[in-house]
Design a protein that fits this description.
Shape: elongated
Subcellular location: Cell membrane
Number of helices: 12
Distance between the termini: 84 Å
Protein name: A-type ATP synthase subunit B
Domain ATPase F1/V1/A1 complex alpha/beta subunit N-terminal: 9-75
Radius of gyration: 25 Å
Helix content: 25-40%
Organism: Picrophilus torridus (strain ATCC 700027 / DSM 9790 / JCM 10055 / NBRC 100828 / KAW 2/3)
Strand content: 15-25%
Main location: membrane
Low-confidence stretches: none
Largest sheet: 10 strands, mixed
């Protein structure tokens, strides 16, 4: 039955082929499309009902017509050959090498759609991951097994931040085997060259696997890349006992591809034209992060997305925020002031932060210090807004101190550039910045921590 060639393509709509009078096909089944001139292309079954199969083409549909195409259903899903030889390599969105290296041959071939993790088997994330970025490590801590997205906008420094995190990320114990899977979705050739140069020049490529899908590639290819990247990470994590950090950028391009497929299928659109099932689809990607009880490996995920029009209520960031455990939000205002990384800590959140900090993980003063920095920065921004209305000379002396703290916080704590800071350096810097305020304003930290870590003289 699987050797049958169907010549019953009835319609081609965008990236989709509609094949009639087909028996026994399966969802996600891989399809070969063979043209009369011998050219072969691949596709995947998106839907099958009443003898009609809707096939999504990988790549371009140029040259395919209803009269020159034969369709063969293979009976299997997309399976990726995986090996630890993939470390240090660069692949396209289908897992094919583009670094002039050999193809990956392995007896281990995994379904790229993965398998759902049994909730009972999930281990609660608890191990601190140091990114070397103060605004993340100190105030929005990343925990091993967490999914923590970065919400950005067009023209902001998310690519630079992604490369820096990939270069610097590590665990404090230093005994774990740590690796990075980097998946770029719909990026320009310039961005691709930037990422490759960053990984190669920093020496981090040897412990990384890179998958690249360019903006010039067919948009349908973007549906496959995150699943291939996560399949690779799952193999390295659960078979090779590595702790993997998966960085996916830009998930907005992925969602645009979903919208294109939905439109070609004439589905009733949801918000902003995105398909109504986008929440479910995104969850099949994000929920592949985590730790499994009894396994030494783990998958931590940082998806990056650009918010269309800087609108955080857009369906892409909105649905992502529901599924993931917090967000790191980049600020256009800070970016205009040449502050990098332009993280707006007041709009950022890590819901698992408390599980990865404290005396057993970072330092005993971490939670209280982060709370104090949040509160002091918020008061400083309020004082800044007030000074713009009534003038700085009308502020109280304490308000002026908070105003100075906010300036120092942005210029010294947030604006760290390409410098890597240890968690110890980050915490100490936080105490240094707070020393501009009166000690009796320290209401969020434990009193025992003030003389131990604080920078005040004689309690003033």
């Amino acid at each position: 039955m699987r050797d049958v060639l169907y010549r019953s393509v009835s319609q081609i709509s965008g990236p989709l082929l509609f094949v009639e009078d087909v028996k026994d096909t399966s969802y996600n089944e891989i399809v070969d499309i063979i043209l009369d001139n011998g050219e072969k292309r691949r596709g995947q079954v998106l839907e099958t009902r009443n003898g009609l199969s809707i096939v999504q083409i990988y790549g371009s549909t140029t040259g395919i017509s209803t009269s020159n195409a034969s369709v063969k259903f293979t009976g299997s899903t997309f399976r990726l050959p995986v090996s630890d030889d993939m470390l240090g390599r660069i692949f396209n969105g289908f897992g094919e090498p583009i670094d002039n290296g050999p193809k990956i041959y392995s007896k281990d071939k995994l379904d790229i759609n993965g398998s759902a993790i049994n909730p009972y088997s999930r281990e609660e994330p608890s191990e601190f991951v140091q990114t070397g970025i103060s605004t993340i490590d100190g105030m929005n801590t990343l925990v091993m097994g967490q999914k923590l997205p970065i919400f950005s906008g067009a023209g902001l420094s998310h690519n630079r931040l992604a490369a820096q995190i990939a270069r610097q990320a590590k665990t404090l114990k230093g005994t774990e085997n740590f690796g990075v899977v980097f998946g770029a979705i719909g990026i320009t050739s310039e961005e691709a060259n930037y990422f490759i140069n960053e990984f190669q020049s920093s020496g981090s490529l040897s412990n990384s696997v890179i998958f690249l899908n360019l903006a010039s590639d067919p948009s349908m290819d973007r549906i496959v890349l995150p699943r291939i990247a996560l399949t690779t990470a799952e193999y390295l994590a659960y078979e090779k006992e590595m702790n993997m950090l998966v960085i996916l950028t830009d998930m907005t391009n992925y969602c645009e591809a979903l919208r294109e497929i939905s439109s070609a299928r004439n589905e009733i659109p949801g918000r902003r034209g995105y398909p109504g099932y986008m929440y479910t689809d995104l969850s099949t990607i994000y929920e592949r992060a985590g730790k499994i009880r009894g396994r030494n490996g783990s998958i931590t995920q940082i998806p990056i997305l650009t918010m269309p029009g800087d609108d955080i209520t857009n369906p892409v960031p909105d649905l992502t925020g529901y599924i993931t455990e917090g967000q790191i939000t980049l600020s256009r205002d800070l970016n205009k002031r040449n502050i990098y990384p332009e993280v707006d800590v007041l709009l950022s959140l890590s819901r698992l932060m408390n599980q990865g900090i404290g005396s057993d993980h970072t330092r005993e003063d971490h939670r209280g210090l982060a709370d104090q920095l949040y509160a002091s920065y918020a008061k400083g921004k309020d004082a800044r807004s007030m000074s713009e209305i009534v003038g700085e000379e009308s502020l109280t002396e304490t308000d002026k101190l908070y105003l100075k703290f906010a300036e120092d916080f942005e210029n010294k704590y947030v604006n760290q550039g390409n410098i890597e800071r240890s968690i110890e350096d980050t915490l100490n810097l936080g105490w240094d910045l707070l020393s501009v305020l009166p000690v009796d304003e320290m209401k969020k930290v434990k009193s025992a921590h003030i003389p131990k870590y604080g920078k005040w003289n004689n309690g003033k």
